[in-house]
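Re-running the complex after MR caught last week's input typo. The corrected sequence lines follow. Everything else is unchanged.
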Amino acid sequence: MTAWLVICAVGLGTYAMRAVTFAVVSERGLPAWAERPLAFVGPAAIGALVGGMLLTADGRAAMPTVAEAGAAVAAFVTVHRTGNIARGMLVGFPVLWGLTLLAG
Amino acid sequence: MSGIASERLDVASTPTTRDLARAGARDMTPMVVGIVPFGLALGAMIGASGIDPWAALASAPLILAGAAQLTTLQMLETGSNPVVIVASALLINLRILLYSASLAPWFSGVRLRLRLLLATSVIDQTHFVAVPRFERGDLGRRERVAYYAGASIWLVSAWLSSQAVAAAIGAELPEAARLDMAAPLALIGLLAKSVGTRPSALAAVCGLAVVTVGAGLPFHSATLVATVTGITVAVFAETRSRLVQEATS
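Corrected-run output:
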């Protein structure tokens, strides 16, 4: 019972954040002061999420393995050149597997 | 250009809403590849946990946000205080307010009921894929809705079914394939695309740096603090470069 209540509360609260904003901001537009900060939400959040991957479950920073780092660099360079994220993964995975084999 | 040739060109270059839904789904595919291993792992955890299995399964469509769902389930499992669980999960999801606020203006003029439906899928991936596409400025309102709907439906259906399948029959992923790296590589791709201007690059670097330093912040707030810091630094950098430009011109 507690599980249902907690999950419904989290679900309702999360949907409220989404729905209230979509109901209000779509109609009235953004306040002028918010426009420039919100333009950087994507890059800042993506950076934060990438940083989060460098952490262990208990929140300590952990160095990626050579294979992981190599795959990340290969994917970054590929996407930077081609603008195609799928292609970055197609290049990143073979690099990851190859370097893992070499290191093992 | 005149006559038949230009007419053909017009027809060929006017995508239908169906084309746009498909384009949205296609652009979302790398993100889907990234979330499926996570969905499978979460589903397997649900299958093996001591929580009411129906409640645990229902948490996927009810919350529609992986990090908060994982935290909620883990804290339920360890028997944390219910109020603390709800507060922690909602704090993790506060970033959704930022995503919603920057997506919402693109749907102005869309009728409210449809907007409330579109709102259900506001999350990292839908924001990261849709906003850059909308900013190119070539899509009308109906086309934006179609693109967003196509991208969202593909993401959400893959997310929910991967959890359901793994909860029912378990998930044995071949460890050597390192599918856990799919999500990081997709994120790296997003990073590479989002650092086009100096302030944006600065926002990303600050976000990354703050999260690694602030990992110990209470209530899983490091990501949010890092995002807000990145935004703030980028706005200052942009203002400063604008002032410098004005002063020298």
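None of the earlier attempt is carried over here. The CA atoms of residues 123 and 181 of chain B lie 20 Å apart. Chain B has a mean pLDDT of 90.
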